[in-house]
UniProtKB/TrEMBL annotation:
Pfam families: DUF2000 (PF09391). Gene3D superfamilies: Bit1 (3.40.1490.10). This is DUF2000 domain-containing protein. InterPro entries: DUF2000, Pep_tRNA_hydro_II_dom_sf. It comes from the Bacteria.
Length: 140
């Protein structure tokens, strides 16, 4: 008998293959934080250990992390846009910026079809996320 909870929604983070390890981790962390900012309900309750010491909350449901090449990221973004699924994104230009204002300016300077995507994150109904990420492999 399993106590597993089946969530109605799914969280997916897609990171470009070929990045340095620090870049992959950086992208995944920024994107996960962006999802919690967009969907505050994703944050669970605060933790407390057996001694009563408090800790910060975590995202309340699993995050699936996929790997994709540049074409796979573009295809995923296109599918999400066609289905009306909101996306958080990270572009290669953001590795050279140091703050949110400059990040937003770097993205705003490039049309959708020319974005140099290195990461995407989405939170939506399970079937929608499955359709948007179809064909991607879990990051290994």
């Amino acid at each position: 008998m399993s106590n597993a909870i089946v969530f109605e929604t799914k969280i997916a983070v897609v990171v470009r293959d070929g990045l340095a390890a620090w870049q992959k981790l950086n992208v995944a962390c920024f994107l996960a934080g962006g999802l919690v900012g967009a969907y505050p309900e994703l944050a669970g309750e605060r933790y407390r250990d057996g001694s009563g010491r408090p800790y910060g909350p975590l995202i309340r449901q699993p995050v699936l992390v996929f790997a994709a090449d540049s074409a796979g990221l573009t295809r995923t973004l296109t599918r999400a846009n066609e289905r009306g699924v909101p996306v958080s994104l990270y572009t290669a230009e953001l590795f050279a910026t140091g703050n949110d204002r400059d990040n937003r300016a770097a993205v705003a300077a490039v049309p959708t079809e020319a974005l140099d995507l290195v990461g995407l994150a989405l939170h939506a109904e399970r079937r929608e996320v499955d359709k948007v990420t179809r064909g991607l492999k879990l990051h290994g």
